[in-house]
Structure formats: C-alpha cells, structure tokens
Amino acid sequence: MKEDIIKGSCLCGAVNYQIEGPFKIFQYCHCSRCRKSTGSAYASNLFVPPERFRWTSGEGMIGRYEHPDAKYFATNFCKQCGSSLPWAVKGGKNIIVTAGTLDDDPGIKPMCNIFWRSKASWYEESSDLPRHDEFPK
Ligand SMILES: [Zn+2]
Ligand SMILES: [Zn+2]
Fold first, then answer.
1. ω into 22 cis (within 30 of 0)
2. pLDDT, tens digit, for every residue of 10-24?
3. Domain layout of the chain by residue ranges
C-alpha cells in the first residue's frame, strides 16, 4: 500500500473513496450551483484525475444529478445521509473531490476563490473575524 493514499467518506460512512496525489488544483467555488449542492457559502473543490480516484465502498449508494444547462457541472451525493460526494465532470476529464468529505490531509491548500462574483450576498470573508475552534460559548 502506498503512503500517499488519501481517504474520504460520507457522513454515514456508507460511501468511501481513495485518492492519490500529488494534486494541482484546489479552489473555493462560489458559484450558485456549488452553493446549492453543498448548502454552504462555497464548495471546496479538489481536482483529481480519474485514474487517481477510486470508490472503495458504497458505490451503489451514490446518487447523481446532472444539471441540464451545465457544461461540466454535476453532483454526487449519498442516498442515505445526503452528503455531497466527489463527482465526475460531464465528459469525465476530472473528478471534483468535495474536500469536506476527506478524512486525511491532502497536503495542499486552496489557492483561490472562483466565481467570486456569484458569491452569496451574506458571505463574509472570515480571515479577519474571530476564530472559534468549536461552537462559541
Ligand atoms: Zn452516507
Ligand atoms: Zn462551482
């Protein structure tokens, strides 16, 4: 077993996957499709070539939605717990790993925000805000 295998899984644990670095692209995407599919201010998208991505369990639990108007965008999710999961772009050139589902450190940090113009009206850049390790008391 190689040591650079990075593991990920959904919230309920039914779906598991593995990826292998090195990775080149890691972006925060603020587009409305990513916001809606993740339910969050932005998606944390790590790009992985298909040959370095593998489902290790629960592939039958994965649902997929392909947006009819989108050139590349689709989304995968666990049918049991609803977690966003890594998805292949239409055409299959890349797997977009939803980095919040990683269980290991991929060894790369996001380098930029994309679709910044589409960001949520309520989004606050958090770098200067107080930081809480857990829920504030
Ligand atoms: Zn699940
Ligand atoms: Zn997006």
1. yes
2. 999 999 999 999 999
3. 5-118
* Residue 89 DSSP label: P
Phi, psi at 91, each rounded to 5°: 95, -20
pTM: 0.91
Minimum-distance ligand to the CA of 101? 1
CA of 90 to the centre of ligand 1 (A): 23
Q: How far is the CA of 122 from the centre of ligand 1 (A)?
A: 29
CATH topology of domain 5-118: 2.170.150
CA distance linking residue 28 with residue 50, whole number of Å:
20
Ligand nearest to the CA of 14: 1
Quick: pLDDT tens for 77-102: 999 999 999 999 999 999 999 999 99
Determine contact, residues 114/30, Cβ cutoff 8 Å. yes
Place of tokens 């977690």: 83
Task: Give me the sign of the Cα torsion angle 111, 116, 118, 122.
Answer: positive
Q: Are 48 and 64 in contact (CB under 8 A)?
A: no
